[in-house]
Structures are given as C-alpha cells and as structure tokens.
UniProtKB/TrEMBL annotation:
Keyword Lyase part of the UniProt annotation: yes
Gene Ontology molecular-function annotations: dioxygenase activity; lyase activity
PROSITE patterns: VOC
Keyword list, A-Z: Dioxygenase, Lyase, Oxidoreductase
Gene3D superfamilies: 2,3-Dihydroxybiphenyl 1,2-Dioxygenase, domain 1 (3.10.180.10)
Transmembrane helix is among the record's keywords: no
Name the record gives this protein: Catechol 2,3-dioxygenase-like lactoylglutathione lyase family enzyme
Length: 157
C-alpha cells in the first residue's frame, strides 16, 4: 500500500518536534539531531521535518512511498507517463534511510519523489539538488511580482 510523503524544512527542530507531536497526537518514530519522522496511519502519511543549514523553510518536497518493488515499478511507470523529465537517483542514502528513488517536478516546479525504503542508515545522506530540479522545470509566470531575496540564515558560522 502506498503512503503519501511530505518533507518540511524547519528553523528549530526541537520546537517543530513539539508542535507536530501535539498536532499528530504522537511522538516521531525517528528522531535525530537534525531530523524527525512520523509514520502516521490516519491519514496514511510519512511526514518528515529537517533542519539543514541554508535550506529553505516550508514544504521541501512531496512524494509517494511504496511497500515493495512491484509498487515501485508501478509508480515509476506513472512518473514516465507524466511526460516530464525524471531524475532516476537509484540506490541512495537519504534522511537516515537506504532507499531506491526517482524524482520529478510538476509544471510549476513542485518536486515529487517516488521511493522504496530498504532499511535504516546511520547518516542523513544526500540527494539531488531538488531546488535545481524544481527551477529547471518550472514554467515561467508573468502574473506575479518578483520574489524577495531570501533572508540570510543564522545557522551557519
């Protein structure tokens, strides 16, 4: 069975863990110094937060997590059918987990991942530059005012 995934960048991991634990009525299933994850059943969602130096705050990406290789093949087929460029990352370590994953973004630059997790990892790991993936495929828009420059982050010295 598939599970919806949401990953949110936060400014203060401890405050955010307290907030989301209250909101969801349960503690995270995974807690690290820079990361937390709730595997919720109602609604069925993998909700993760992370505090990474210089990363944007708010929704980073969305995704579909699958339970087995056949579901992954099915979802990968849907990515291909969506008619957008797919970034096939393959086997990777990300978010303290070993996974097989691919990425795509919608016409407006919303980034999605499809993945199958095969086990835990001792490090956060890395992934593709999803901001670049989003901006490379986002359709330009003339209807909106220019965005303000992002505020400087105080987490880096």
């Amino acid at each position: 069975m598939k599970r919806f995934h949401v990953h949110v960048g936060v400014a203060d991991i401890d405050q955010s863990i307290a907030f989301y634990s209250g909101l969801f009525g349960q503690e995270p299933s995974v807690t690290k110094p820079d990361y937390a994850k709730w595997m919720l059943e109602d609604p069925r969602v993998n909700f993760a937060i992370s505090q990474k130096c210089g990363a944007a705050k708010g929704v980073e990406h969305l995704g579909l997590q699958v339970d087995d290789a056949s579901e992954l093949t099915e979802v990968y087929g849907r990515l291909e059918a969506a008619g957008r460029p797919v970034l096939e990352e393959g086997a990777t370590t990300c978010c303290y987990a070993n996974s097989e994953k691919s990425w795509i973004s919608d016409p407006d630059g919303v980034v999605w991942e499809a993945f199958l997790t095969s086990g835990d990892a001792t490090v956060y790991g890395s992934g593709p530059d999803i901001a670049q993936l989003a901006s490379a495929s986002a359709a330009p828009s003339a209807c909106c005012a220019p965005q303000a420059a992002p505020a400087a982050s105080s987490c880096c010295s």
